[in-house]
Amino acid sequence: ALPAEGLSGIVVDGGVNVEAVESMLAPLGAEYATIHECAERVAKMGDSHIDQLKEPVQTVKGMVGTLDTVSEYASELSHLLPGMLGADGEPAHYLVVAANNAEPRSIGGMAGSFGIMTVEDGKMSMGDFVGIETAPRPDDGEAALPLTDEETRIFGERVGQDMRDVGYIPNFPRVAELQKAIWESSGNTEVDGIVTLDPVFLQRILALTGGVTTSDGTVVDGTNAAQVLMNDVYLRFGDENEIQDAFFADVASQALDQILGNLGDVDLAKLLEVINSSLDDRRFYIWMANPEEEAIVAKLGAAGLTSTSETDPVAGIYFGAASGAKSFWYLDTDVQVSDGHKNADGSMSYDVTVTFTNTLTDEEASTMSWYITGEAAIKRSVSDMHLDVYLYAPAGGSISNMQTDGYFFDSGYFRDSWHTQPGDDPMMKASYNGIEVWYGVTGINGDSSTTISYTVTTSPKASAPLQID
What we know:
Helix 2 (32-43) packs antiparallel against helix 3. By secondary structure, the protein is α+β, with helices and mostly antiparallel strands. It is globular. It contains 12 helices and 20 strands.
């Protein structure tokens, strides 16, 4: 079923060979029953007693298992991909969001630059990017879509009104749904989906396609993109916001053109490796407005969902900048999880400790522009950074024994409903879509840390060890 050129015939300059993909997926999907039976038989094979066969047998198990998964989705994909790739007579339009982790959000970085990617018959083209100061938002002060009471309490009204702030919600499908509404309510192009990427993902891709040189001569490539976009640009341009916006837009436009223009020359296996690793560490997301297309994106692990599984428990540790600053390049995080112990009802309890450390000193901060360090009235020192922290229990589980060491804002701060609302305790208990959530707002001076220790208890249905997102 492969084209004559092999896998290189799948990804061509500027896009995807839709016809070749369809011709490969259709027979794979048609033969799923047979492939699945083979995969089940291979999976039941014991380990070989002959040393020379142990590694080959494990390799075959892995390959047939992968083929089984691909075959399962192949029939759906063969029907849905043409529409997703603008090959059914109607071009597809996607909003590409370049996020910057120097000012973090729960999903990764703050949405900083926006561009429209048009896909027609598999061929992709990028429009110009707009910077953060032109990020669209409704003019009437109302959310583009109704927010729940839980969202307003935990994340603030900002998530329904400002493209930059929707990402405080950790669940990307909800983020993208709100971003689409904000984008379109501001009179912009209607979009069929949203793709979000961060500077680390960009750096990994540029390492495959080659770098770009901006109009001012700056080289951005597979060795330095993260450093340039998350730190150097702010040190270099200080508080010259318009120049920064122009620089980010320049890099985003050139980089996406470079990537799309060189896809055909990229080793497909290496490209997939970059995409998979970036999905695993939350640097790349895809959302589709069409529910059927979104379902396949979720199956392929690209949707950025928060976990709802009781059997495979996941505890979330999410955080975002509580005040405007680009100093979070200097933030270190450390998470420790105990081995856990079994409870009488079959659930498991784990001791979790998360430590946020501000590595920026007052001396260093005093030489930086306010754009990096921030100028919020709540700052206690020039190096002070502020974090909204959201701790999610696993589905069907709970959080207990909450202990904090550090400075936390109380209910006297952030009195308006725009922001996350601190309470009388450092961390407050709430619920979001049936999941127990604890939230609080901490301030961390330079060379200081905030530590939060607590116990996570899984559902009694849990059959796997606790994972941390």
